Amino acid sequence: MLKLGGKIVRIDAVEVSDKAHLFRVSTKDLPCALRKDRAYLVGAGNIPDGYVHYLVPQAQESRIEETAEIGAYTVLPPEYFYLGHDDVVRLSADRTSIRVLFRANSNHNSILMTEQCNHYCLMCSQPPKSADDSWLLNEIEDLLPLIPKDTVEIGFTGGEPTLSGDRFIRIMGLAKSYLPRTAVHVLSNGRSFASLDFAKKYAAIQHPDIMVGIPIYSDDPTLHDYIVQAKGAFDETLRGILNLKLLGQKVEIRIVLHKQSIPRLKELCEFIARNLLFVDHVALMGLEMMGFTRANLDILWVDPHDYRDTLSEAVGILSRYRMNVSVYNHQLCLVNDDVQPFYRKSISDWKNEYAPECASCSKRDECGGFFSSGVKFGYSRKLVPFL
Ligand code: SF4
Q1: Is residue 247 part of a domain?
Q2: 17-to-21, 75, 155, 165 alpha-carbon distances in Å
Q3: Which domain holds residue 55?
Q4: Last residue in a domain, options 86, 102, 118
Q5: 303, 330, 352, 354: which to mutate for ligand 1, most atoms within 8 A of CB?
Q6: Domain assignment present for 374
Q7: 54 pLDDT tier (thresholds 50, 70, 90)
Q8: Distance between CA atoms of 72 and 56, rounded to whole angstroms?
């Protein structure tokens, strides 16, 4: 698991501020005019002067003495070995920690908009917090101009990203302006879009490639509301999806598979196929062993090996209706052959690991593996490495 944030080793010639500082990282000898806004990541080669900041891996710390030209710098612990050109990092206001906000060589850049949420899902991997974290929105507005224009895709996540209302709309508009060729994926519970006015504001952005991923966990409203711990959520979510599609927006339905959702999974897929045939994608997703999932493991965990036939039937229902369906966050040896055409390697690279049993597997490259938390806190004991 890659470490995306934490304490730094040492900082020099940088004044404490009331504001965090964002830097786009460079490993290249850029023209002088471009150096003023960038942080240079010190490597084995010459250290060019003129950069506004220098990031010095601890192993290179002795090189600071080599040059009188280096100004403000931060010494990084070894865990940030993966940093590269065009990544974006944040130095905290108190200058004691760093966070990697964007990795240029990754297709799994997810931008946190808030930790607040109007759901309290049994399996939430990032339990909601009520504190005002609107500073995250300010930071996103600073971040978007720093992201390379050729970025293929970025995601926005929460909490519930739409809770900030017009500020959410503004940020989606900025994403379109700064990154017009970058696909955007928003994870939302969809309830804000039950307001036709809000859905219209969102549609008016006219982003060329944006999709909202919205969870539905049951065709039974009471059960869905229980899983998300919010009364009336099912109705609002459905109205949100209908409004988005009415306005020609792309929608993905996400179903997390666990002890509460699996017993009615086939009925849910029938419901989706008959009533929401027009959505753009349906993702059937494995559990992540983080946050509330670990606390609620007794009422959530089902070995994927034990629901593999139900998963086959669910995929079969959706695909027979010619819906676009994918299976995410599963292990290749734990799905039936008929699911494999729909199987995707989906776990974000920074939290993707394999179990010790996988060492001998011949299909490891095709398998999505596990969340790091799964390897650490529990996974199926029925793995069958391919010969
Ligand atoms: S044994 Fe192979 S298929 Fe099974 S989880 Fe490990 S790598 Fe994936």
Answers
A1: yes
A2: 9, 18, 29, 29
A3: 5-102
A4: 102
A5: 354
A6: no
A7: very high
A8: 10
